[in-house]
Specification:
alpha+beta, five-stranded antiparallel β-sheet, 18 helices, 417 residues
Length: 417
């Protein structure tokens, strides 16, 4: 007898949304709207509620976010079933945009969300302040579900080789540090560890990527700019210019500079709704500002090597110039010489760079619209009326550029393995 195999239904997926609202009335109105959308559990609590609950770990502790004193939170659990998580992503993106719009409409902001299996999230949902409990409720899904947009074809591969063998790259970087600083006590904090005796006798790195990750973390722990980051910028720039280090590794270090230079705009973008809801004007931290200034001071030295660099490095250098408002005579013709055939994803990234360098607002808007048409996470970022085009462009450019060059790195590493 033939046995008919039935495809297993994927477990229901849950998303817990957290919104911050300026008053209890605004929070309750928002909670009612979410419940009306089919959310299963919705709670309304005063900000820092658990600081006043004796049984809570947070009881009596200082506020982690004193700016929100007097505000209220809405915590709401939505359930989506019938599909695997990956298939749900385009719809969930629309949901996140809808929830963020709802929060803005009530004078607040969407603080974030967490995801997991529905049964798990429902079991751990904290019911303090519960105002809506709809047992078994699920958010209705459209049929058919929205799909991800088609991506343009990729640009041609960058032929610059891989990151280099780990031992050789580590030795080259350490040798560079010794040439530049001589002794550990003369080196900035982000470089001194490379001259430490413990480092010299430590276990060798299995991959170059792991070493470069440790180096990036030493410069800016978890990507956060500090005074040590500002001090380390000239050191990173010297490594980028050091021909004894494999081109692929120099390119990754250049990518670190690019991301650090855009750290201020990236932070502004992520906090745009919150900043507006609180009635504040965004101001980047002193460390972010000084880091960008330090990187911009190194830009002429980096661009002076334009004629000797590979196309991939030039691609990243042009992006750094765009972030730093660079005005180098080599750039217009240099951009045109880079391999970015019309109709490719790289051509759209290049158009964004060119628009930033030219300062033309219409060109910038056009470039962002084009990128948003096939990169929906950019459209999601742009959905807030408090996000301005230039800040959005600066915040997304580093990842666009480094994702492009990293694809060639992966191909090169695979060919060597």
């Amino acid at each position: 007898m033939a046995v008919q195999l039935m495809a297993a239904t994927p477990p229901a997926w849950g998303v817990q949304y957290t919104l911050s609202l300026p008053s209890e009335d605004a929070a309750r109105a928002t909670a009612a709207e979410l419940s009306g959308r089919g959310h299963r559990l919705t709670a309304v609590r005063a900000h820092d509620h658990f600081r006043f609950v004796p049984s809570s770990f947070w009881y009596g502790k200082p506020s982690m976010d004193p700016e929100l004193e007097g505000w209220w939170q809405v915590i709401s659990l939505a359930i989506y079933s019938g599909y695997e998580r990956m298939i749900l992503e385009p719809f969930l993106r629309i949901e996140r945009m809808r929830v963020a719009h709802m929060a803005r409409a009530h004078g607040g902001f969407h603080q974030g969300c967490g995801e997991g299996h529905a049964v798990t999230l429902e079991g751990i949902f904290t019911r303090d302040g519960l105002v809506h409990d709809q047992a078994g409720a699920e958010v209705p899904l459209p049929n058919p579900l929205p799909e991800e947009p088609a991506r343009p074809p990729s640009g041609p591969s960058w032929n610059y080789g891989g990151l280099g063998e780990p031992r050789a790259v580590v030795q080259a970087v350490v040798a560079a540090v010794e040439r530049i600083y001589g002794e550990a006590q003369d080196a900035p904090e982000a470089a001194a560890w490379l001259l430490d005796e413990e480092f010299a006798f430590s276990e060798p790195y299995e991959t170059t990527f792991e070493f470069l990750g440790d180096l990036a973390d030493a410069v800016a722990h978890q990507g956060t700019c500090t005074d040590a980051t500002v001090e380390a910028v000239p050191f990173l720039a010297k490594l980028v210019c050091d021909d004894s280090i494999a081109v692929g590794s120099r390119l990754m270090l250049l990518g670190d500079l690019l991301r650090l230079a855009a750290s201020g705009p990236s932070a502004a973008l992520s906090l745009a709704d919150r900043t507006a809801a609180l009635g504040d004007a965004w101001q980047e931290s002193a460390a972010e500002y000084l880091t960008r200034r330090a990187i911009c001071r190194e830009l002429p030295q980096l661009l002076s090597r334009w004629g000797d660099e590979s196309d991939a490095v030039r691609f990243a250098l042009a992006a750094l110039a765009a972030v730093c408002d660079g005005h180098d005579p080599r750039l217009p013709s240099g951009l045109a010489e880079l391999p970015a055939p019309a109709g490719t994803d790289r051509a759209d990234v290049m158009a964004l760079m060119a628009a930033l360098l030219s300062g033309e607002r219409e060109h910038l808007k056009s470039a962002l619209d084009r990128l948003s048409s096939w990169l929906p996470h950019i459209a999601e970022k742009a959905a807030s009326p408090y996000v301005e085009s230039r800040g959005l462009a600066l915040s997304i450019l580093p990842d666009l550029v480094m994702a492009d060059v990293a694809s060639s790195t992966r191909q090169a590493e695979h060919a060597l393995s």
